[in-house]
C-alpha cells in the first residue's frame, strides 16, 4: 500500500512544470477509435487514468505504444474489434464510457458495463444516452450493461438539460460521421471540449462552436491520422497556485493558460494572492500577503471548477474569518471534509454548503485521499500542518497528478512516498 508522507511547515520556492490535461487526453484517446490510421499524441501525461484507457484499447486489439521520448503515445485502432470492453477496466474509471460515442460512430454498435470512477455522487449517464437516441440509436440497459445500436447515425438537434462535459464529448464524437448536421445546445464549455474538437478537426472533422454553448457538427466521411499535443492541465496548475497560497510562498508555474484558469485566479486574487504573467504560458504566484476569506460556488465552466473545490477548502481552512463553499455540480463531493476535520479544520456542512472558519494552524495525522482532488487537498493541508501528515489511498491521486510528490519536492517541500 503506497502512502505519501508530508512534513510541514516549509516555504516553497522555484518553478514547476505542468503536464498536459488529464481531462483532455482521455477523450482524445477515446476519439482515436474514429480513425483507422496511426495517431500520435505528444506529452502524454503518465497517469493511472491514461493507463486504464490505453489498456482498454489494447484489449480491443488496438496497437498502443508509449515512448519515453517526448512521452509520445502512438495509437493505431485499425484492427479494433467490436467486442465488449473489459468490465473491470470500465468500472475503474468513469471516463472509459467515452469510448461509447466513437464505437457507435465506427461500428453502429457498442456494449459497455455501466461506468465507475471517483465516488463523488451518483453520476448518471442519461444525457449521453439521450444524445445517442436522438442520433438514431436504440439504447438498451440491463444487468449492469448499456447497449447502443444504430443502422445509421443521423444528425439532430440535441439539448442537454445540464452542460455535462462527458455527454457533450460523447455526443460530439458519436456524430462526427452522422448524415447531415448535429447541433448540441447547452453544451459544456470547458476548455477540454475545445481541445477535443481541435483534435477532431485536425483529423478532418467539421465541428464549430466547441468551447461555447452551441456546437455544430457537420458529418464527414472519414478522418486521417495526425499528431497532436493536448492543452495544459488547468486543475494541476490551480493546485500549485493554491500550494503557493497555503504556504505563503512565491513560485513560478510553467504551463498555464491564464484564460482557462480565470475563475480560479480571480478567486485567489480576491483572497489576496498576487499573479504576474510571464511570457510563454508561465505565471508567478505570490502567496506571501495577508489573506481574506471567500464565498465560492462551483459551477460548470466558466464558473469555479468543482475539481478545485477540495484544494480551495484546504486553503480557506487556514484563512482567518468565515468562508463559504457551495458545491452545485456533484451532490456528494464533501468527503474530504471529515479528513480536514481530523487535521483540526473547523468546517460545518449544511446540505451542499460548507462553512469554514479559518484557524491559524492544522495538525498532521493519518488521512485518506477520498477521491482524486481530495487527495491533492490532503497534501496541500499537509504542507502547512504541524508535524507529519500521512496520506493513504494514494492511487486516487495518481489517477490525475503526474509524480505529484516529485513536483512538490522540487519546490522544496519535504514529501515522499512510502510503500508499506
Ligand atoms: C468531467 C471531468 C471531471 C469534472 C466534471 C465536472 C473528465 C474525464 N472528467 O466529468 O473531472 O469533475 O467533468 O467538471 O473530463 N450528469 C447527469 N447526467 C449525465 C451526465 C452527467 O446528470 O448523463 C451530471 C453528473 O451527475 C454531475 C454533473 O452532471 O452531477 C456533471 O457531470 P459531467 O459534467 O458529466 O462530468 P464528467 O464528464 O463525468
UniProtKB/TrEMBL annotation:
GO terms for molecular function: UDP-N-acetylglucosamine 1-carboxyvinyltransferase activity. The keyword Cytoplasm applies. Residues 7-407 form the Enolpyruvate transferase domain. It comes from the Bacteria. Its EC number is 2.5.1.7. Phosphoenolpyruvate binds at residues 22-23. Gene3D superfamilies: Enolpyruvate transferase domain (3.65.10.10). Keywords: Cell cycle, Cell division, Cell shape, Cell wall biogenesis/degradation, Cytoplasm, Peptidoglycan synthesis, Pyruvate, Transferase. InterPro entries: Enolpyruvate_Tfrase_dom, Enolpyruvate_Tfrase_sf, MurA_subfamily, RNA3'P_cycl/enolpyr_Trfase_a/b, UDP_GlcNAc_COvinyl_MurA. One of its GO terms (cellular component) is cytoplasm. One of its GO terms (biological process) is peptidoglycan biosynthetic process. It holds the Pfam family EPSP_synthase. The active site is at 118 (proton donor). Belongs to the EPSP synthase family. MurA subfamily. NCBIfam families: murA (TIGR01072), PRK09369.1 (NF006873). This is UDP-N-acetylglucosamine 1-carboxyvinyltransferase. It comes from Clostridium beijerinckii.
Amino acid at each position: 500500500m503506497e502512502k505519501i508522507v508530508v512534513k510541514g511547515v516549509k516555504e516553497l520556492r522555484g518553478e514547476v512544470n505542468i503536464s498536459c490535461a488529464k481531462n483532455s487526453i482521455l477523450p482524445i484517446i477515446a476519439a482515436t477509435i474514429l480513425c483507422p490510421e496511426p495517431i500520435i499524441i505528444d506529452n502524454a501525461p503518465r497517469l493511472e487514468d491514461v493507463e486504464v484507457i490505453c489498456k482498454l484499447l489494447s484489449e480491443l486489439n488496438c496497437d498502443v505504444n508509449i515512448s519515453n521520448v517526448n512521452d509520445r503515445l502512438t495509437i493505431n485502432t485499425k484492427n479494433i474489434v467490436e467486442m465488449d470492453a473489459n468490465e473491470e477496466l470500465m468500472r475503474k474509471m468513469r471516463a472509459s464510457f467515452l469510448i461509447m460515442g466513437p464505437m457507435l460512430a465506427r461500428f453502429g454498435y457498442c456494449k459497455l458495463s455501466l461506468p465507475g470512477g471517483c465516488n463523488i455522487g451518483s453520476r448518471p449517464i442519461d444525457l449521453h444516452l439521450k444524445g445517442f437516441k436522438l442520433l438514431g440509436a436504440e439504447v438498451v440497459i440491463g444487468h449492469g450493461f448499456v447497449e447502443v445500436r444504430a443502422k445509421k447515425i443521423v444528425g439532430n438537434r440535441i439539448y442537454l438539460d445540464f452542460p455535462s462535459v462527458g455527454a457533450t464529448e460523447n455526443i460530439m464524437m458519436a456524430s462526427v460521421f452522422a448524415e447531415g448536421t448535429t447541433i448540441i445546445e447547452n453544451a459544456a464549455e470547458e476548455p477540454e471540449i475545445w481541445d477535443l474538437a481541435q483534435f477532431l478537426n485536425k483529423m478532418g472533422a467539421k465541428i464549430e462552436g466547441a468551447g461555447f454553448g452551441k456546437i455544430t457538427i457537420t458529418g464527414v466521411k472519414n478522418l486521417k491520422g495526425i499528431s497532436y499535443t493536448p492543452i495544459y492541465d488547468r486543475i494541476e496548475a490551480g493546485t500549485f497556485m493554491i500550494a503557493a497560497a497555503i504556504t505563503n510562498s512565491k513560485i513560478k508555474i510553467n504551463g498555464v493558460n491564464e484564460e482557462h484558469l480565470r475563475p480560479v485566479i480571480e478567486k485567489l486574487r480576491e483572497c489576496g494572492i498576487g499573479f504576474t504573467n510571464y511570457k510563454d504560458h508561465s505565471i508567478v504566484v505570490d502567496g506571501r500577503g495577508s489573506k481574506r476569506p471567500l464565498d465560492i460556488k462551483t459551477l460548470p465552466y466558466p464558473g469555479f471548477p468543482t475539481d478545485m473545490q477540495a484544494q480551495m477548502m484546504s486553503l480557506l481552512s487556514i484563512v482567518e474569518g468565515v468562508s463559504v463553499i457551495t458545491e452545485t455540480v456533484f451532490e456528494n463531493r464533501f468527503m474530504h471534509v471529515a479528513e480536514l476535520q481530523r487535521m483540526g479544520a473547523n468546517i460545518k456542512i449544511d446540505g451542499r454548503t460548507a462553512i469554514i472558519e479559518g484557524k491559524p494552524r492544522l495538525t498532521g495525522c493519518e488521512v485518506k485521499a477520498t477521491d482524486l482532488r481530495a487527495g491533492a487537498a490532503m497534501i496541500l493541508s499537509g504542507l502547512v500542518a504541524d508535524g507529519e501528515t500521512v496520506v493513504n489511498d494514494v492511487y486516487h491521486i495518481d489517477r490525475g497528478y503526474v509524480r505529484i510528490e516529485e513536483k512538490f519536492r522540487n519546490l522544496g517541500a519535504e514529501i515522499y512516498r512510502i510503500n508499506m
